[in-house]
From TrEMBL:
Produces ATP from ADP in the presence of a proton gradient across the membrane. The lineage of its organism: Bacteria, Pseudomonadati, Pseudomonadota, Alphaproteobacteria, Hyphomicrobiales. This is ATP synthase epsilon chain. Belongs to the ATPase epsilon chain family. Residues 4-83 form the ATP synthase F1 complex delta/epsilon subunit N-terminal domain. It is found in: Cell membrane; Endomembrane system. It is a peripheral membrane protein. InterPro entries: ATP_synth_F1_dsu/esu, ATP_synth_F1_dsu/esu_N, ATPsynth_dsu/esu_N. One of its GO terms (cellular component) is endomembrane system. GO terms for molecular function: ATP binding; proton-transporting ATP synthase activity, rotational mechanism. Keywords: ATP synthesis, Cell membrane, CF(1), Hydrogen ion transport, Ion transport, Membrane, Transport. It comes from the Bacteria. CDD domains: F1-ATPase_delta. Its main location: membrane.
């Protein structure tokens, strides 16, 4: 199967760099799967699980909280505002993120911002359930 170069950059470190079969992204306009030969796209990311498929039956998952993705036919680069590999997640980390988002929700009167934050909280809760915490 054809592969493409994928680089995932977090604020503190490079979390992934290598050839992959596919990457599923939590795009701000909806989930999207990037495959080799993808049309060029620049998109923002929302809070959610990024799924890296290195080969059939082998992959990694990373919880991202915002960022950007630059896609072209031969590569994908994600610059995440925050990113945590699933192996490093704990219930305390997710609970702290939920509490911080709830405080932001309470602190704003902007309706659109409240809707955005509600989405982040829902994604974090879904991630917590999916990880069987």
């Amino acid at each position: 199967m054809a592969t493409f170069q994928f680089d995932l950059v977090g604020p503190e470190r490079i979390l992934y760099s290598g050839a992959v079969d596919a990457v599923q992204l939590p795009g701000s306009e909806g989930e999207m799967t990037v495959l080799p030969g993808h049309a060029p796209v620049l998109t923002t990311l929302k809070t959610g699980m990024l799924v890296i498929t290195e080969s059939p039956q082998h992959g990694k998952r990373v919880l991202v909280r915002g960022g950007f993705a630059e896609i072209n036919a031969t590569s994908l680069t994600v610059i995440a505002e925050r990113a945590t590999p699933i192996e490093e997640l704990t219930p305390a980390i997710i609970d702290a993120d939920i509490a911080a988002a709830e405080m932001l929700y309470d602190a704003t009167d902007d309706y659109d911002r409240k809707i955005e934050i509600e989405g982040q909280i829902a994604q974090l809760r879904e991630a917590k359930v999916a990880l069987s915490f």
